[in-house]
Amino acid sequence: MQRLSAATLAAFLLPAIVVLASISSPARAQDANAEKEAVRPAAVQAAPQEISALKFRERPRYPSDPQRLKRTPLIDGVLGDGEWDPFYTITDGPIKGTVYCNWDDNFLYLAARTEGAANVMFDLDLNGDGWLRGADNIEIIIGSAVNGGTPVVVARLLDASNSKDTPVWSETAIDPKTIIVAEKLVNGTQILEIAIPKNTASLQPRVGQNMGVRAEFLAPGPVTTFVPTAPFEPHLLLDATLSVARVMAVAGINPRLTLSDLKCIAGQKLFATLELTNQTDQTVAIKSVLWTGTGTSANAVNTLREVTVKPILGLKKQKLTYQTLLPENLAVGSYMLTVTADLEGGKQVSSAAAFTVVEAVQVQMMSDPQPVAVSGQTKLSVDVDVQSAVPDHFRGDVELNVVPNGWVVDGSRKHTLYIDREDAHRAARFNLKLPATTTAGDYLVEALVTWKGQTWHSRLVVKVVRTDAPAAAVTPAPK
Fold first, then answer.
1. What gap in Å lies between CA 202 and CA 135, rounded to an integer?
2. What is the pLDDT, as a whole number, of residue 146?
3. Which of 36, 44, 53, 324 is the most buried (most CB within 10 A)?
4. How high is the pLDDT of residue 417?
5. Res 469: pLDDT
6. Residue 172's pLDDT is what?
7. Are 73 and 102 in contact (CB under 8 A)?
8. Is 18 in a helix, a strand, or coil?
9. The predicted structure's pLDDT at residue 3
10. Where, residue-wise, is CATH 2.60.40.3880 in the chain?
């Protein structure tokens, strides 16, 4: 038999030794893998998708409408019909969905409808002056509703006020608790709604304000472990302009629609004005003008078609007016009035403006003192504060219709309350006397506000404590 050299024998046996070692020590292999996993950064292990992997240097290529209407949606995790205006729709990637954006004087509203659970990230350039300018660029990430409960919110601000070459992320400049969030996951569709309050960073919502907006849908997972992009990494966003009306113009003719009131009550008369500006030196004939509401707004406003309309003279303006009586039973919510003018030559201009129907009054009750300490007959003041959205003025009755037994109201239980203007408030004060025998505990006081046959109830729980415990013995001072 031919003898094998030591080198040849080693080369022949080494693979078998390696295989036997791996078979005989599976636990050792698992331990090795565990050690490798343990040295990975925690953020990489927990984050289902890295923010740094997103292509922020590329502007989203989805069709978008930069005109963001002024309207006040309800933040409840439900996209009501006609309540929001779509901004753009993400049609590719693992998670698809639509982004919404609206605003009012106090909030910037953002929403997202996604096909499945998702973490949603919003990047906002609040002054619209570029991502690496100023201290107005914020990033907000909201956790998915897949696990139920209150969504986790992470908010950070990019501060480039000193220099765009040395920007820094601030994780404490924005309090996430100030952002109102509602989120629901129903039948595989996730709805997210948020309201960002005025004065967050440099947010000052106003007509004509330009800003940048971008949303990204991320795989669900812990949001607190996401690592932001490098501070100097530019983010390209989509343009958004805050407006009170959406406009579709034609060359030479610009429409401008204004409403008499953007916050209305049921039964109110609403006025509108359409101003058509002719920027040419030619007279333009108007064939007809249609005022109407579409969708859920169809029954909110009267449909009116005008066929006898004066032409627009060259380099002049033409004003058209409209009025409608909102139904007495019109539900609280957001509605839209649309006006379309058909011009000669088959041209058409249109504009749409949103208005919100709110409760005529809102009632709150307060007492002073609270809690009230009873020791002998004790006085208590109860204020019923009424916030009125009634146009012009409010005149109604305020009555204490529930008072605990034995409590005495000085004077009448019913007061007439007058509020001299819309969006103002005033309080009706009632003075009460609590008998000395009142025991400690919680007592219910209820007020009733009446206006034009409508009623609003408000309740207050007065906490009573006793202070008539035996006095502590006093040691005489030494002579």
1. 8
2. 77
3. 324
4. 98
5. 53
6. 94
7. yes
8. helix
9. 44
10. 245-357
- CATH class, 361-466 region: mainly beta
Considering the domain delimited by 51-243, tell me its CATH architecture. Answer: Sandwich (2.60)
> Is residue 381 a contact partner of residue 429, using CB atoms and an 8 Å limit?
yes
Contact 360, 393 (CB under 8 A): no
Asked if residues 301 and 326 have their Cβ atoms less than 8 Å apart, the reply is yes
Q: Which residue has the higher pLDDT, 225 or 122?
A: 122
For residue 442, which amino acid is it?
Answer: D
Task: Please give the Cα distance from 6 to 464 (Å, whole number).
Answer: 98
DSSP-derived secondary structure letter, 458: E
- Cβ atoms of 326 and 270 closer than 8 Å: yes
CA–CA distance, 12 with 209 (Å, rounded to integer): 77
Distance CA 129, CA 94 (A): 31
Which part of the chain is CATH 2.60.40.10? Answer: 361-466
Name residue 441's amino acid. G
Tokens of 260: 């008499």
* Cα separation of the two ends of the chain: 125
Q: Are 151 and 141 in contact (CB under 8 A)?
A: no
**Quick check: 23 pLDDT over 50?**
no
Q: At what angle do helices 26-38 and 6-24 cross, to 10 degrees?
A: 80
> For residue range 326-353, what is the model confidence (pLDDT) as tens digits?
999 999 999 999 999 999 999 999 999 9
Find all residues with CB under 8 Å of 427, minimum gap 6, and list them.
Answer: 383, 384, 385, 386
Dump pLDDT digits (tens) for 394-422: 999 999 999 999 999 999 999 999 999 99
> Can you tell me the distance from the alpha carbon of 118 to that of 218, in angstroms, rounded to the nearest whole number?
6
In CATH terms, the fold of domain 245-357 is Immunoglobulin-like (2.60.40)
User: What does the pLDDT read at residue 52?
Assistant: 55
CB-based contacts of 262, cutoff 8 Å, min separation 6: 70, 244, 353, 354, 355, 356
293: how many CB neighbours lie within 10 A of its CB? 19
Per-position DSSP letters for 182-225, written without gaps between them: EEEEETTEEEEEEEEETTSTT----TT-EEEEEEEEE-SS-STT
